[in-house]
Design a protein that fits this description.
Blueprint: H1 6-18, E1 30-31, H2 36-41, E2 45-49, H3 63-69, E3 76-80, E4 83-91, H4 99-128, E5 131-134, H5 142-154, E6 162-167, H6 168-179, H7 187-195, E7 205-209, E8 214-215, E9 224-225, E10 237-240, E11 243-246, E12 252-257, E13 268-277, E14 284-298, E15 304-309, H8 321-326, E16 339-341, E17 347-348, E18 350-354, E19 358-363, E20 374-379, E21 385-393, E22 398-411, E23 417-421
Parallel strand pairs: 1-19, 5-23, 6-7
Antiparallel strand pairs: 2-3, 4-22, 6-18, 8-17, 9-12, 10-11, 12-15, 13-14, 13-16, 14-15, 18-23, 19-22, 20-21, 21-22
Helix pairs in contact: 1-4, 6-7
Amino acid sequence: MANLTKQVTVAFEETMEEFGDNLVISKAFNTYNVGDQLLERGADTIWRPMPYQMPAFNGMDQTANLAASAGVTQLSIPASIGFQKVGLFQLSANELRDPQQVKKIMKGVMTRLESEINIACSDLAALSGTAVIKRTVAATGYDDISLADTLFNEQGIPMNGRLMGLTSKDYNAMAGTIGKPQTSGLQKAATAFEKAYLGPVSGFDTYKLDYGYSLAAATATGVTVNGANQRYVPVSTVTNANGTQNVDNRYQNLTVTVGGSTIKVGDCFTIAGVFAVHQITKQSTGNLRTFRVNAIVSGGGGSGVIQISPPIIAADSSPTFAETQYKNVTAAPAAAAAITFLNTVTTQVNPFWQDDTFEILPTQVMPMVGAGLARASATSAQGITVVLTEQAKIADLTTQFRADVRFGVVNKQPQQSGIILFSQT
């Protein structure tokens, strides 16, 4: 394959040295490298295993429980390559006389690609996290983050590797709370005042985001569960005419009645009588489980079916072994149980998660060798590959350039991620 011209190669190499510096939330995601050939053969999708949750039993004689435990269920989730972001530009023969022109445009393109990767990661974190904290006040600092720590602890989320991304407005407000007593002599206060820096707070490593997803206020009113016994039974696979297929157990369809307006994707809610449990002990936390709307299945957001996360695994009616493994609530909702929305005011969201939750899956485009394109590629420290191609037009001596990044993002465990909403009513 033809090489890029020397001045373009130099500009590309120099800008790639800095590529990734602005990937704030992306760098907080784990990277999972699958391999381009495997992804192509799997239609750009690979199934990733979820951690086991296992029950414990009392007593010496475990004959009956041993028989049941033969049905241990391993859950998995699909991770797909869902994004291809492209930067385009062209330069005339006259413009190419100035090497700085090439470098400046290249820098602009790379900065935009970084932004697109950040947005994809931020949107996933904002829309898929199911642990929702509603605050009726503006961001204050420790008290806000400690609520996320308490919620995770009560639900049995691992204490290591906890992260939180905060919008610039909320991050700086928290830093201001710490930094205002500048005369305290504390290094934490001085750093917060001088650099608007929080650092670790209440068990979370915090990051300042330059982009925050804006979640619109819920508008649906008079929403109730339409029908009893809407519980979910997790299974690892199903068998149909196409053979044995993996099952994505992160979601469930829920039939609802809506009194007014419509439900939308991203809405956060609780269901009366459905309390969260600790994922290991299976004991009630005493707090209602929070849910997110992942999709509108039927009814257009009015009375009909919505897809929610997490699924309602109650293990309260002749449960399978898998239900006892992955139980996450105290009971299935009763018929006509009231649904209460938490996102009552439009605001930017602040995601938080445990480290083994989000992944970015990088891959690349591979133009054919000898197809008339000059090509170069470079890979960032996180494993994201940028492929730069160029092609000249003899008619007017213009050279066209294209920079491609391909990647996927996935939330492997929605129950181990959440969001904080400030200034709600």
